[in-house]
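Why do we bother with holo predictions? Because pocket geometry can differ from the apo form. Keep that in mind while you read this record for magnesium ion.
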Amino acid sequence: MTRSVTILGATGSVGRSTLDLIERNRDRFEIVALTARKDIDGLVELARRFRPRTAVIGDETHHARLREALEGTGVDARVGEQAIADAAAAGADWTMAAIVGTAGLKPVMRALEAGGTVALANKESLVSAGDLMTTAAAANGATLLPVDSEHNAVFQCFDAARPGSIRRVILTASGGPFRCRSREEMRAVTPAEAVAHPNWSMGAKISIDSATLMNKGLELIEAYHLFPVEADALEVVIHPQSVIHSLVEYVDGSVLAQLGAPDMRIPIAHTLAWPERMETPCARLDLVRIGKLDFEEPDLDRFPALGLAMQALVAGGAKPAILNAANEIAVASFLESRLAFLDIASVVGEVLSRYAPGGPSSIDEVLEIDREARDVAAEVTGKFRI
Ligand code: NDP
Ligand code: MG
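The structure, written out:
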């Protein structure tokens, strides 16, 4: 039986890893839609190769080029934000949500409202609007499957029928490229150094988040929404080898973990085949070659972004959305060499401390909070500008 799939953010790191798996199992999948924002060449190449029903480019200036390039292929060329949201709701059995940032929120909501299976990589949407998303999933009978490697690991170990038997969920973190650097040594790091993750190959934004440990903070909030656990049952441990992807501790002292090579195609394949399993070309785990696994406590003094995210999780309301929006602005400024690495967390901290609007009760309210936090973050970033 073939499964119809849509990939939001097809030209990105997660999108391409998903398509790699689909290409190896071409007869099992039919592609409904592929979307991108501005990588027109990438999208055209993917559309020609995979022949989706629809290809959507977000950036309006590329419409004519997309249309021309796909003429005669039978692929419908669409453009604009609304068309991306429509593609998300086009009724695929399975949708990969791999747009980066809050930009993914509306499309994810549309996919959830359409009631299929949503494989979620876009953690920022869950951080900003977790309650609204999980409520929408339940109300529409949609299935939300975690793609993020840690959450996919927890999902595989978590006895959802007996949440009361679980004592702790432990997310592992590689520690990123600056795990062993002092604050002083981190002061002058460049975007190129920060993007070079030791274990995982990922898009630029999440690579910076991994270097500040904000990624792990966002993941704590993500885990809080995905699994029925209290915030104080969530922990982080640094594990530089990225072999154990996360752990679940039960009340009897048993600890279950999921292990594997650090290759996103493994968790993606888990969600693509779920509840079955599929083969992947990923390296097999060779424990003898790895030899030993290390663990450390996260250092909140050197990596204050993680502490800020923990505070936002406990505070709840609008704080996680503000944290996420401020971080998106600060990371974009750092990538453009307009902000120093250590000031990413300083900007987020200052924006969080400035104001505290009430919690959002609709997606429009989330987007309003997001917009306001971006404005405040842009102003604060100006003060720290290099
Ligand atoms: P990339 O930057 O590699 O790709 C992002 C994708 O989203 C691209 O297709 C991009 O299009 C599209 N996109 C970006 N902005 C917009 C927008 N405003 N509107 C519509 N589409 C947009 O990111 P990753 O693949 O690394 O990450 C995607 C998501 O998955 C993130 O939320 C990340 O946190 C999460 N994730 C990623 C992991 C990884 O290994 N990479 C691991 C775990 C989670 P274009 O190419 O045209 O710019
Ligand atoms: Mg992760």
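The pocket of NDP (ligand 1) is lined by residues 9-15, 36-39, 42, 58, 84, 98-100, 103, 121-124, 148, 200, 202-206, 264 (CB under 6 Å).
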